[in-house]
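Feature request, filed as a ticket because there's no other form

It would be nice if the structure record came with a short human-readable summary line next to the tokens. Right now we just get the raw output. Example of a typical job, pasted below so the devs can see what we mean:
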Amino acid sequence: MFKRIISSLCIGAMISSLAVPVQAEETDTVNIYWNDVHQHIDGFGAAITPHVVQHMDHNPEMLDFMFDTEKGFGFSIARYQVLADEEVLGTMGNHMDQDGTLHWDRDPYQVRAIKRAQEYGAKILATPWSPPSWMKDNNSLYYGGSLLPEYYDDYAKYLTEYVKGYKEQHGIDISVLSVQNEPNANPHWASCIWSGDQFHTFVKDYLAPAFKEAGLDTEIMLNDTANFRWPAEDFPYLEDRETRDEIDIISGHSYWNLYERFSRAKELLKPMWQTETSDVDTADDPSMEYGISWATEVHVLMTVPEVNAFLFWYMMHRYANSEALVTCLCADGVRINKRAWCFANYSRFIRPGYWRIGADESPYADTFITAYKDEESGKCVAVCINDSTETHQTDFNLNGFSAERVTGYRTSETENLDNIGDFAVNGSNVKLELAPRSVTTFVFDGCETEIAERHIEAETGSGKIGNAQNCDNEDLSGGMGVNNISAKDNGVYFDHVPLSEGVAVRYTSVNNADCEYNVYVNDSLVNTVTFQSTLSATAASADVQITAQIPENATVKITAKDDCDGIIIDYIELQETAEAEGLTLLTSSAAANYSWAADAIETVNYDGIMTVSEGDEGLLITRGDFAHSLIKAIGAETAWTANFLDATDGTSYYSSLGIGKATGILPTSENNMFYPTKYLKRRDMFVITANALKYKGKSAKAGYTGEFSDWSELTTEEQEAAVLLMENEIIAGSDGKLNPDGYVNNAAAATVLSKLTQ
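Raw output as currently delivered:
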């Protein structure tokens, strides 16, 4: 399975693996953005199954090593198997006989290991591979089969008693219960097939009520499929509000490199855990090159589907393939592979409760960076993968915060999370070195946030907590990226809000009824406001003024009061106070006017290039949807075999991305990513659209210098693209600006695409 990553991401490294490292001459910059907040981190870990425990019994120090945050891997999640009536290591794992008798002494191996993991503070994830055989239609643990409906109640009670019993009998707090491991697989080992409808019925009518009656606070996890390709029909339980409120985590395994973001789960703020991955097709490989490929795997999972937790498969095993992090050599001890140390560059330092924040993810070829923060401890962690043979001398710019010091920990051919020393931070800048073929974790201590003076932003779609932002844009129109706010416990959150008398919200309703929302300041209810329906009226969007005395550096939360299909927020402005001067207020509550795009929208709708409905003109367009419409607009066709790494088969834009990549219309990044689910910026639209014109045989004239105040903000490539677009009367700018970092809405996209058809 893992050959896929090597072929798609590390081929350059393989070719150059025999080259002598060369010192890079240039010094480049990496930006870390404290206020660009993405997903919450729940933890990292791996599985402790009975076989893993057996190998640890021969090497007892390894159990502590897995969870030790000073010298070991620092795992914060331990996954183990809820045994049924399978004989494991000479004991019967069944905890419930057919007559209902419960047994608590038949799993001593896992119990011992899990208790030790819990002592280190790790979350405990319990996962059944199969219900007891007598509850299934094939009367067997193996080869799939399904839970018989007449045993739904018995199985729910069994799982409830299991969670209670492990607490009462063994002192183990099961943090999360996954209902089924890989419910879409029927292998020769313990397994059980579940459909989305079966999950829906079982959780809603049996398991959730049983947990409530027993007073359990164990979280319920669903899915755990063998990959991240999730058909919508597998998730009926998310469309039933009563059921989805009982489901705490959506999970999947990242085998076969399928990193599809399940957008509905993200909209509902459901955490997504990657709970198992390994490599059964590659011989046990202890090398640094292979370790880097696994670090890259973690990077991709953190930045594409944006998982909240990442778990490897076996902690330890004696297999000859690469299914385990640590290889048990039996009488000869253990071999801690480089893939384990590279994984520990994440797991030891990024603790539960951290948030992933924005960073320049690939500043050089074969270099990948993610960053994380914890405001309570004042720490920021940056994990930097350098898969090249060059040393990168890098300026790290800390945007929105400063730090007192930074310490580096490096894994390389000769180092295993070695402390490479402390480095002085000059306020918000520090020069750091990324060594060749290495994974380095930099821990910034003493971080202090720079409180913004004007604007605030937030995003709900990825469970993001917004922060006050320093921003030169006067209105942030369309640039907020805030998705639906819905369900009783969801909402938009802001912290470090400057002093003001309230906020003004530009929004669009997504249902046909008014929605009431509660406004909290520092967790105290201060106001209830009504967001009126806009989709059923001629207005496409509206404003609502929220009045509340907001003290400096406050936390503000806006949540739905009752069940509601939600609103889409375009932008939010602080309301001016006597003490806070210079804030830009919304000047009008009139509906946005898109009459200037009416003809273009009619054209693209008629030609089947886009579908823009009334009221959707101001919605932002994603990179994937724009690319799909662009390829249709110019009629580009070609045979292709390779697509972007994050292009997912089954999406509407999948083939268009393949065509765009093959024709050169869509630029290919060093990491072979296109980020189709991200919103499209104007600067990227310039380049992509200009490439389409070149595909049609157009070329730009030389000598244009630009007459826009923000011309210097464009790269040379973007300037050349803008020239070509202006010469063909596709863009013209506004108020002496091209606004390259502004986002593109449906109206603007339709205008550009309609001109391409002329």
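Something like this underneath would help us a lot:
The chain has three domains: 49-349, 455-574, 595-756.
Residues 455-574 form a domain with the Jelly Rolls fold (CATH 2.60.120.260).
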